[in-house]
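Hi R.,

As promised on Friday, here is the backbone we talked about, encoded as structure tokens. Could you run it through your design pipeline when you get a chance and send me back a sequence?
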């Protein structure tokens, strides 16, 4: 690949990407930290539970993050209290709802498939079969109507796909810690291949002046795997109903 060529996220028809870690955003030096787990309540994932035998726990957000506005802390505290009282924590995947942006990058589970054309990048998550469209070399509408995935426009800068998203409604969460946001949310993502194409990294910038005291950045990474797109229709609860062999993962580390 020439240095100036756009990245090819799907060199084969069975290239897919699976999130690394437990679905938490990674901090960026010099930026306010993303919301994480309340240190008073340890998070034990299903994967960890399977190894240690400990009971899995749910995510409890750290509302002491100084970057949160008070209204967001109040909403998240009520949610934390409900979960600690026995309510099952909301997830877009389990609720069969769109995940929004940047939730699309980390909330849906399953594998991410990326289709590239000169006019558009289409992203499909096997979880819920959610689809996101990114128009290339286009401008934003003057006043986009708020929607689940907003209006995403993108362009390539050397080896990086830069995506700018506005027009998001306030019905989704930013992360697995159920951080709310307003319809003023503005998300910029920089997608690039790392480690000789074995991994995919997203540097995201989050700006919502009504929810956060400062804009902030975070990282999300994926492992490359080989697999076909399965049928996973959430509302029908039919995960691969025909028992199709979708291929063998190269190095899969699921996070749900």
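Update: got your reply. Pasting your designed sequence below so it's all in one thread:
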């Amino acid at each position: 690949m020439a240095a100036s060529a756009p990245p090819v996220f799907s060199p084969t028809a069975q290239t897919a990407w699976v999130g690394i870690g437990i679905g938490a955003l990674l901090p960026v030096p010099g930026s306010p930290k993303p919301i994480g787990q309340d240190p008073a309540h340890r998070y034990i994932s299903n994967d960890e539970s399977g190894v240690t035998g400990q009971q899995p726990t749910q995510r409890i957000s750290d509302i002491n993050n100084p970057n949160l506005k008070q209204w967001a802390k109040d909403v998240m505290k009520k949610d934390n209290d409900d979960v600690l009282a026995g309510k099952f924590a909301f997830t877009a995947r389990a609720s069969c709802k769109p995940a929004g942006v940047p939730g699309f990058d980390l909330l849906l589970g399953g594998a991410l498939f990326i289709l590239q054309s000169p006019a558009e990048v289409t992203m499909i998550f096997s979880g819920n079969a959610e689809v996101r469209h990114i128009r290339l070399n286009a401008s934003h509408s003057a006043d986009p109507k708020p929607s689940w995935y907003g209006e995403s426009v993108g362009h390539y800068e050397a080896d990086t796909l830069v995506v700018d998203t506005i027009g998001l409604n306030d019905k989704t969460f930013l992360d697995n810690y159920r951080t709310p946001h307003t319809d003023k949310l503005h998300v910029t993502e920089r997608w690039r291949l790392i480690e000789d194409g074995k991994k995919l990294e997203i540097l995201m910038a989050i700006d919502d002046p009504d929810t956060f005291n400062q804009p902030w950045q975070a990282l999300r990474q994926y492992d490359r795997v080989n697999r076909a797109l399965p049928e996973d229709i959430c509302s029908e609860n039919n995960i691969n109903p025909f028992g199709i062999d979708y291929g063998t993962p190269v190095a899969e580390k699921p996070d749900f």
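One thing I noticed while checking it: Confidence is low (pLDDT under 50) at residues 248-256.

Thanks again,
M.
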